[in-house]
């Protein structure tokens, strides 16, 4: 796990620089760059360390993880005619989800959620004619299922490069759906706890849960527009079958958007119920204290009256006077308690 916020003023690095300046801007120190090239076609697959030139009849996926070696990344990117403006977004790791389309390629910026010890990170996917280039902030295992599909006789191995782009996007979106399911289950448990045992939770726990929901919603809200644009753009790098498959991801993005909205509203309701339970608890405490104070008012009066130092007062000289006042006090307390009980104030 990489330590967050190594440089809280990271954006000052780019202050005054021209557009397209290639400089790393991130919350952590850049990780060592790792490059793998996946070459595949129907019935054939191999992976090589480092960058490999294109081969006839083979499709190519260049997978880059870690942004430390900027020169090496830029050198590979220029092999695919990727513009500096696109590369600037790669090295600025706080980008929102977005889609850019150029003559030689299209690019999709996504975010990979925390997965198996790796923190959340930015991912940029580039698609061109017969190739896919992926650049991630850190090493991760999110694409292992995709690699397994490429290395076996599956439809993906014999499909176009745009099908690989779909598979990578689908893998990332699947993480979003899993995260939304986890948040839904945690929200349901929190809702039940607030209703049945509000004393076992806190406002900070509710606020933290709501913050996680809002973070997922804010992160994924552009996804729906990205997929809509891809589906309607008729981009030459997307074949008809991939366009059809993207519609399935769009359905997932639509569900995700609605799910986040529903969970956000649910958390607002949970917070209201929790605050109401606190008010009810406080009212119950004040009710008990008020009843106790009311009971002691006549007792205070009696003890105060007979505590005055006058020479002549009724029953002060009688040996049974103390017991009479004590018995009267018990009768007053008992009478008031019975009255409060009948009125259901207690």
From TrEMBL:
Q: How does it sit in the membrane?
A: Multi-pass membrane protein
The principal location of this protein is membrane
| Catalytic activity reported | Mg(2+)(in) = Mg(2+)(out)
TM ranges are: 288-308, 320-340
Q: Which InterPro entries match?
A: CorA_cytoplasmic_dom (IPR045861), CorA_TM1_TM2 (IPR045863), Mg/Co-transport_prot_CorA (IPR004488), MgTranspt_CorA/ZnTranspt_ZntB (IPR002523)
- Identify the keywords attached in UniProt to this record, alphabetized: Cell membrane, Ion transport, Magnesium, Membrane, Transmembrane, Transmembrane helix, Transport
What molecular function terms (GO) are annotated for this protein? cobalt ion binding; cobalt ion transmembrane transporter activity; magnesium ion binding; magnesium ion transmembrane transporter activity
Q: Does the keyword Transmembrane apply?
A: yes
Q: Name one GO cellular component term.
A: plasma membrane
Q: Where in or outside the cell?
A: Cell membrane; Membrane
* Described function: Mediates influx of magnesium ions. Alternates between open and closed states. Activated by low cytoplasmic Mg(2+) levels. Inactive when cytoplasmic Mg(2+) levels are high.
What family does the database annotate? Belongs to the CorA metal ion transporter (MIT) (TC 1.A.35) family.
Q: What is this protein called?
A: Magnesium transport protein CorA
């Amino acid at each position: 796990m990489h330590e967050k916020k190594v440089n809280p003023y990271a954006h000052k690095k780019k202050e005054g620089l021209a557009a397209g300046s290639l400089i790393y801007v991130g919350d952590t120190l850049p990780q060592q760059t790792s490059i793998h090239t996946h070459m595949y076609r129907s019935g054939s697959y191999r992976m090589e360390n480092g960058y490999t030139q294109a081969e006839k009849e083979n499709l190519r996926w260049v997978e880059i993880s870690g942004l430390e070696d900027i020169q090496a990344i830029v050198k590979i990117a220029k092999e695919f005619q990727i513009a500096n403006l696109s590369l600037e977004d790669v090295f600025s790791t706080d980008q929102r989800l977005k889609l850019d389309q150029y003559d030689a390629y299209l690019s999709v910026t996504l975010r990979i959620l925390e997965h198996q010890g790796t923190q959340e990170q930015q991912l940029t996917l580039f698609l061109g004619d017969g190739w896919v280039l992926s650049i991630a902030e850190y090493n991760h295992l999110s694409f292992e299922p995709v690699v397994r599909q490429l290395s076996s006789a599956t439809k993906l191995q014999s499909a176009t490069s745009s099908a690989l782009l779909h598979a990578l996007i689908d893998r990332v979106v699947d993480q979003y759906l899993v995260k939304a399911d986890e948040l839904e289950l945690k929200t349901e448990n929190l809702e039940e706890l607030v209703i049945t045992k509000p004393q076992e939770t806190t406002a900070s726990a509710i606020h933290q849960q709501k913050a996680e929901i809002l973070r997922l919603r804010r992160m994924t809200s552009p996804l729906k527009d990205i997929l809509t644009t891809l589906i309607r753009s008729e981009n030459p790098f997307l074949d008809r079958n991939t366009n059809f498959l993207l519609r399935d991801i769009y359905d997932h993005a639509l569900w995700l958007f609605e799910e986040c909205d529903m969970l956000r509203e649910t958390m607002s309701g949970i917070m209201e119920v929790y605050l109401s339970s606190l008010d009810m608890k406080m009212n119950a405490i004040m009710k008990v204290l008020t009843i106790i104070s009311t009971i002691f008012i006549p007792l205070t009066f009696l003890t105060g009256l007979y505590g005055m130092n006058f020479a002549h007062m009724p029953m002060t000289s009688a040996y049974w006077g103390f017991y009479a006042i004590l018995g009267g006090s018990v009768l007053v307390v008992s009478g008031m308690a019975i009255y409060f009980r009948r009125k259901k104030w207690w």
